[in-house]
Amino acid sequence: MKKLFLVFAALTLLTSCLPKVALAPEYWSQPSKVGILINSGAPAKYKEGSQGLLDMAVTSGDKYQEGLNVIGERIKPKEELISLYSEILKSKGKEVVIIDETFDPKTAPKFEGPKTEGKKYSRYDFSRFKNKYNVDELLVTDVNYGFMISYYGMIETGKMAHVLLNTSLINLTDQSLVLSDMNMKNEALKRWKDNNYENSVQGVRKALDKAKEEEKNVHLK
Description:
alpha/beta, disordered N terminus
């Protein structure tokens, strides 16, 4: 059977495939109002490795759902990231607006406006947020978290606690990217079911804490 190398963690990210853009130091010298929008659903099982279509079907069960439910009850990345980004932006002199919406890439308009040479742009048109919330920029972070399971065919070869943040800061005047980067952290898991999935919870907790530290000290420095 022909095998396909598959990594599923990033498939649901609305900002996936964006170019990497580092935040310019001069960004902090200019006053602006920033909207914060965090896309984070329930924790999930992600798969990586070499699998055929039959392998994918056989390994698509809900073996991990009980553990994911416990993780979802204990860890709330949306609230934590809103707090983190708000603290960073305010400490740098930015005004902050929390946007409690879910951005759906399936229905969102693609950005088709003019582009200036030397700039990189968002895949989607976020311009409606500018007038609706009276903000100059929009910080969008997609969150994936839960289990990353490695497979070779139908065989499980590894198990990790998984967190992936895909963050973009968009200038709403022209939809150009002020910042764009992906931040993935994995922690190996052993005895993942023990003590009501405590090791799994703590693995995701550790991965999220490392991701937050990188957001603070690398991406938004």
